[in-house]
Sequence to fold (326 residues):
Amino acid sequence: MTEEQIPEEEAITTEAQEQADIPAVPVEGAEGLPDDVADGEVNDDEEPAP
Amino acid sequence: MLQGKDVSWLNCTPASVAMAVEKATLGRLRPSACEVRDYTGDTVGGTTLPQCVAYATAHGINVDTRVGGNVAPRAWLATQVQAGRGVVIQGNTGPLRGTRFRSTGTGVNHAVYWNECRGGTVGHPAECLIYDPAADGRTAGWGKADQGPSWWPYDVVLAFCAALHPWGESDPRTLRSLGITGAYAAVFPDTEPHVHTKYGATRTSPFPDRVRIDVAYVWLHSTPAYGTANRAGKVYRNDLFISYQRVMKGSQLWLGDHNGNRWVRGDKVRNIGGSQ
Fold:
């Protein structure tokens, strides 16, 4: 009898759920970045060719 | 329109947060982008993640907002989505312009909703299901906008996030140019605890119940029954099994997963009902 494999996506989900509560390590160099970054205005202008 | 001003092309963050709220509450809350936007009270221009997340917080949704010096590490962020948490990410649409995912003319700071992943490995998925509020399939002078939702390659997601101009589009600095590998994001909670019970099973207590395999190995089964025909892979000593449901079949306790498709014998695990 051959072994069935647990579906790959389920295995990823299970492992991710185990790791998801581990606190994130601060990203180097991010000090000084602003908290508030506003989204821009979606436009249909096309940038001129270089 | 908001207080007489047309903000429809400045609504990507409210729209993305609205989608995240709907997923996080399994549809119990279905705000429109306008409702989220209205909550911010901002009628001037684009909105920020903290502004829009305030709507979710006000409705009892616990959101992990990762901005500024607290930006989210990439692999950590991907793991959150792989674990079932919806995420709103900020970036810039510049890198999308050379792809079929293009949704704007020029590159602009933008926000999209990231709902799930597929393929790859933990922390590095192959593809990401993205709901881009601007991907409405419209025809513009520059071409045709993508029609979302779309599966973006993970590299495209990373490029989108890295292209963000933290000090606004008129400032040339981007996260990439600054060498910063994090992403501005708002991580929403996993969908409210629920289970698809089968075979007469009931919820575990605690819910879910995190148990560990207590034998060298044991077969999982696709139903709570013995037999080689419904075997569904092996698990090994100390492996974690997250059980959401339980059922007695004769004198045998079976523990089942979220969807009721994987079952393990209760006498082969430890920590049933124990600390989490």
Summary: Helices of chain A lie at 8-19. The radius of gyration of chain A is 22 Å. The mean pLDDT of chain A is 79. Residues 25 and 45 of chain A are 39 Å apart (CA to CA).
